[in-house]
Amino acid sequence: MFFIIGIGLGDPKDITVKGLEIVKRCDRVYLEAYTSILSCGQESLEDFYGRKLILADREMIEQHTDEIFVDAEVKDVAVLVVGDPFGATTHTDLMLRAKEREIPCQVVHNASIMNAVACCGLQLYSFGETISIPYWTETWKPDSFFGKILKNRHMGLHTLCLLDIRVREPTLESLTRKTRQYEPPRFMSVAEASQQLMEIIKNTPGELSGDSLAIGLARVGHDSQKIIACSLKEMTEVDLGAPLHSLVIPAKELHPLEVEFIQQFSSRKL
Q1: Does the annotation list 220 as a binding residue?
Q2: Are 80 and 32 within 8 A, CB to CB?
């Protein structure tokens, strides 16, 4: 049996009882380590689970899947995922590959930023399409996600913005070499994301401006969780500390309960 197990927002104890029971009996357990990051560290998980984990980086998940599926028809093999298994298309693809090999599959769900974002006070059923904001380069500055933010606002919906994570990304110079070299890990902050949005706004004037409300979240689900509500322009200078960060662009009109809840994260009257 092949299992994809969500381990929650990062504390070793976030795993479900069902997930932990499976982890303890599996022949091999992989820890997927590139679509999100594990703030508590692999060693903390191993101590709590009582077993060793095999780190599965981007290359293994995308290019060497066969290693993961070895003997999965007759043995129990699991991949652990930060958050929920279906929070990233990578894990959907893993399940489809397993099914192509006629390997029985089972998913164990858990909390992720997709539902935990409600901690900022915005009602989940008022969120529209979630978007991702990638790091820009000097020659590549995509902005197609901006139209989705505007579309959500037009429909009176909030937008959860997932911010770029760059882990074990090969350098351009090493792509043509036998020896692969990697860029240092990078995790986009709410300030960096807001700076890119402000640059788009300069070239695309409309209902979203630097004065529009934005909500920054950091390390959701952890003891060090931080939330701040301010203008998008002010968010460009906010420092929420260590990753992971998420940014929310609320709808133009908020429910009174949303306003009351968010007020605790803002230094000005909303």
Answers
A1: yes
A2: yes
